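Following the same procedure, sequence and fold were stored together, as reproduced here:

>
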Amino acid sequence: MQRRFLTICLLGAALAACAVPARADEDAVEFFHNIEVTQDAPVADAVCFFCNVSVDGKVNGDVVVFFGNVRLNGDVQGDLVKFFGNVTAADNSSVGGDLVSFFGNVRLGENVAVGQDLTCLFGDIHSAQSATVHGDRVAIPAMVLYLPVLVVGLVVWVIIYELREHRRRQLMQYPYPPPPR
């Protein structure tokens, strides 16, 4: 039993020593620090948390941004996905895959090309006439989310107001100060 356990441990150590480590030298992943892609230094993928991405060159993969803005003045070969921020694509820039924006606006300049779908959830799309989207263009404005929240909030406010008024009217039925006995 001990010999079998020792053999398994040695085999596991040998396999771990032979494992090829993952390489992400060409990727740009940042937290709280902006990513700038220049023409001299292209990247494979750009992932940014709480920061902005500025693409003046070429991204060979995808761009993903959480809580930040994307300024595109070059090419993205893959998808561009952004949560809580704005996307601004300058003239003659392109996105090879999908462009997806959650809770933010998308602004496309002249001759901007989107290779597949353009989706903007809870934001607006402002695009020039010459901007082309080769797939579907879907925009769901923020009012779709905010209007039901506003209606529910208004109903709750009316219910609370009426309950307070009802209690106030009940208290006002009694004379103040009370009559002497």
Notes: Confidence is low (pLDDT under 50) at residues 19-24. Residues 24-142 form one domain.
